[in-house]
Amino acid sequence: MSEHKIVIKYYNIKMLMTLDCNMLLRTIIEIYGNNICIQYLHMSQAEQNSASSIIDGMTAVNTRFEVYESVGDSKYQRRIDLEERIVNQGIK
Known about the structure:
This protein is α+β, with helices and mostly antiparallel strands. It is built from 3 helices and 6 strands, in the order βαβαββββα. It has helices spanning about 15-30, 45-50, 80-90, and strands spanning about 5-10, 35-40, 50-55, 60, 65-70, 75-80. The strands form 2 sheets. It has a 4-stranded mixed sheet, with helices on one face. β3 and β4 form a beta hairpin. α1 (about 15-30) packs across α3 (about 80-90). The chain is globular, with a radius of gyration of 14 Å. The model has no long low-confidence stretch (mean pLDDT about 90).
């Protein structure tokens, strides 16, 4: 059985831990099973800038994290469907 490689890029560690961590892990394990390798990376400044906007002088984070799945040697595909599922299930 091959190992699934997942990369989670997060905007802010506190936000990830308080809002998304439990549902993120639950969803990934439900989809990929127990044979997974998850790497957590902090978003670069450029990624943070594209994941947020300034509204009335305050930063609004539009994308709290991004999920990438390995699809080959050094190639990763973003899984927006999983990101939306994790956020939507976590809100309930």
